[in-house]
Write a structure and sequence with these properties.
Elements: H1 3-14, H2 19-33, H3 37-48, H4 53-80, H5 83-101, H6 107-122, H7 125-135, H8 141-167, H9 171-192, H10 220-224, H11 227-243, H12 249-256, H13 261-286, H14 291-307, H15 315-342, H16 349-377, H17 380-405
Amino acid sequence: MSAARLAQAARGSVSGLPRAFWWLWTSTLVNRLGAFVATFMALYLTLDRGYSASFAGLVVALHGLGGVVSSLVAGVMTDRLGRRPTLLAAQTSTAFSVALLGFMEHPAAIAAVALLVGMTSNASRPAVAAMMADIVRPEDRVRAFALNYWAINLGFAVSATAAGLIAEYSYLAGFLGEAALTLVCAVLVFVKLPESRPDRPARPEGASSAAGEEEPAIGLGTVLRDGRFMGVVGLSFLISLIFTQGSVGLPVAMGSAGFSPRDYGLVIAVNGLLIVLLQIPVTAFIERRDPQKLLVVSALLAGYGFALTAFAGPVWAYALTVCVWTLAEIVNSPTQMSLVVRLSPVHGRGRYQGVYNLSWAVAALVAPLMAGFLIDRYGADWLWGATGVLGTVAAAGYWLLMRGLSEGDAGTGTPVAGGAPAPAAEPLPAG
């Protein structure tokens, strides 16, 4: 492709999106430039502090448990209080808790503050996704979510390399650096982002209701009874369980094999770098393609990409396996996020996003426990074999679920599992 065509494709990818989206995008980028705790927690505990892989897995799991709690609470806050207040509360509390974690010495204190960090750092996710859905037109959402994911990984590619070097000299500097950049995000949100929560429409005149009765609110029970949506959440959990091994299983396995934090930082930076280079052109290619096929293929690439790690020896071989599962991320993330938004009713986006993010939070709880147990008891090869099995199961699940969704009958108020009608949402595009 010529330089002129590449430039035209790039302009097409970024054009037409509102100013508020770009401030939200900038906040995401700055936040990920400071990412340290989630990436280097396992190495910090095993190499710097001398704890076992099982204890490191327990602490990272507590970090994930915090995310489980905050996903639901933050989802409700996003709908009730608004997107902006939830973001500000999450980011300021994250900055404080991350800085505090760097000074903890006792194992129990480390575990307790890791739980707090997990709660605060995951609380912003439902608000970010809901705000993005509010301010971006439906036809632009796949592209917008892809650009946001691109920002996440642009920041990650830089931070993983820099943090790997910083970790060889001072882990505390990494904790404080993340805290400072998270505060910068809070300032950006406070200064540049207006509230985007849609007003609930008034009840039409003549509608049957008691005098003064408001339109029934969408509760968490509504979300949990939405069978189609919960199917997506379950499959997202399997995919998340695989991808989370990039930050929990992979660093522990590489550390056990004699590699340094710098080696791991360079290997995992390949993930962010490839997404930076390929996310926009790949998204342009997949934007109008059948989501069923995209999700099935991405699940297989994720599972078997990690499974190939069992055969890696030198650093470059680990980097090659990262290339395989990174392609799965590039395809899966915007496709699945767009699907989640289209299945979510406008006035329940916060709760729906909270439950969806619960899949990642629960995976962040389970994945380190799984990795620590398998590596300590049986060796890393068993962990990588398990990811191949999970990828196969997820691919089959997507194929079965999307047979119904691709027919355009989802999100239209048709009955779902549990006998309750699904709340009105935006129809899925034709495959």
